[in-house]
Design goal:
Largest interface: A-B, 64 and 64 residues
Distance between the termini of chain A: 52 Å
Number of helices of chain A: 10
Helix content of chain A: over 70%
Oligomer: homodimer
Strand content of chain A: under 5%
Structural class of chain A: mainly alpha
Amino acid sequence: MQARRRRVIEAALDEFADKGFEGATWRGIAGRAGVSQGLIKFYFEDKEGLWQAALLFAHEAMTADLPPPPFTQNADPGLALTAEWIRAYVRHAARHPQYFKMVMREAAAPNPRIHWAADAVRKAGHADFQRGLQLLQGRGIFSDLNPVLLQYAFLGAAHQPFLASEEIRAIYGVDATRDDMVAAHADAVVALFLGGWTGDSE
Amino acid sequence: MQARRRRVIEAALDEFADKGFEGATWRGIAGRAGVSQGLIKFYFEDKEGLWQAALLFAHEAMTADLPPPPFTQNADPGLALTAEWIRAYVRHAARHPQYFKMVMREAAAPNPRIHWAADAVRKAGHADFQRGLQLLQGRGIFSDLNPVLLQYAFLGAAHQPFLASEEIRAIYGVDATRDDMVAAHADAVVALFLGGWTGDSE
DNA sequence: TAGTATTTTGAGCGTTTGCTCAATTTGCTG
DNA sequence: CAGCAAATTGAGCAAACGCTCAAAATACTA
């Protein structure tokens, strides 16, 4: 049954995002999905394979949810279109933080997962992003900054409130995933990365 | 012996930062520190207690390493002083990423550690930061943005390249912790968060 | 140097882990 | 309904886990 397999993947996604690869357990995932451990092994080779399947699933969900990046056309994307894409990206990060949580947990120390993820999905996404950044920087926007560092600054700024939502709740008593907070954060990211240029030429 | 206890804490800091609370093991920490598992238990109550000790150690190291935040005086800090503090913060994040890695691994999902950390160290630091932000925003700098979200955007932007250094190495073949990269990222963060205002009034 | 207190070890206990596998249930086809 | 393949279970295994503890080594005092 296909629906069952999907339930397992979604449960794994939540478990890996919450607890990391080493902290996640077959029993925990089976419990979340409401199936037996044996069934997971029937669908997936091993823990590593399940992790990869979950990451691919989340990546495809993100690709499907986001508008086509204004970067991929080779023409200058324009600030308005770029701002719209950034807002959509922040909204997706807020609603589906599992993908970035999974990646970030593995990106902190050397391990086979991060190299697999780099080859399987991350390199292509980064190449798109860098192409778009090049167009914007060619226009003079933060043109003196290292594009790789700029990209990671963007990723960090966009994702952090949703990665650390439990801390925000603990310190400020606020839910960062509330609709108005998400919208406000999308505004903040646009202002930070495009704010200095919005009045210039369009 | 005090030096031995310190070696254990530093080993624990590395292990918790690399693998998270659940992924870290007594045997791994003991191996890194070059002592037996039994000795760690002699010094620290349990795994939770060792985690807390490691976080406190890293927090104190950060406090000692950073210049006094321009925020704490109630006078307007001035952009130059603020820029200098931001650069120092980024440099510390690059050289000692363990503290933020430890916090972020726990901040993703509800667990006792993040609530302990919030009360023990994070709330106070955030209050300082918010006080400083208030002064800057009173000056008109990003004054229309939610200060909590702005703080997390700053934290994410400042830390991300060093949290994800393994991914950057895997995708771009670059070492984000190299001196020149760290300096470039400090410049980038200053430009992003203060860049629009540097020419204004001082 | 003897005697006491502190530090350090490593074997081992009960539990949980990732994973196996024989057995059972379910769905499908003729 | 019979028969077969696919789906699903749960008991159980070796290894690794957090943690205990009696014994040994070291440091300190008189």
